[in-house]
Design brief:
Elements (H helix, E strand, L loop, with lengths): L1 E5 L2 E6 L2 E10 L2 E4 L9 H21 L19 H18 L7 H11 L15 H26 L15 H27 L5
Antiparallel strand pairs: 1-2, 2-3, 3-4
Helix pairs in contact: 1-4, 1-5, 2-3, 2-4, 2-5
Amino acid sequence: MGVRMVRGVRFRRVGRAARRRPTRRRRGVACTCMNSRAAYDTIDAILNVHSMVNGFVAQAVEDVPDSRMAEQPAGGLIVNHPAWTLSHLNAYAGLLLSMLEDTSVSAAAVEAEMARFGFGTTPVPDLGAYAPKHELVERFKERNARLGAVVAAKHGEMFPRPAPERFRTHAPTIGHIAVTLLVAHPAHHLGQLRQWRRGTGIAGG
């Protein structure tokens, strides 16, 4: 193993591949220098991905005609249409806001939306069962913008708290639920929206 010096910082070289792990000498002892937590805030990365994926979701429904928002193509095999998907994502954004003790969405509204559009509900090819497209998109954008602001302000306080009892089998803390709903959940449904677009013959997205 070779070692070379650059302005007092040593870089270890293993074979041909250089692994740059800077070390500095303190009182004769070499210590590995890592980025401090203050220098890299993970929540910023989480919220950036959340914003990016939500932008893709909005883009995926932007050119979908209102009349096709509840269409189930491929002989009904692709069931998660945009009207249900947006309703579903809006419901979970409201749920997370409620967990974070934000009052922008009432407890009654969260309960009603989860009952209609939460996990285990069945999308139906009936436009009348859903809000109009412009309302769904507007709520999606507004609620997720609010969610990003609330998470940025409250994550240090709220994320370590125990999750509500019904979620603890899979998510011990509110933080576990939040990261899932901010990043993994909308990305999962973005993939379904793109599959739906292919099934309906709508280009791109």
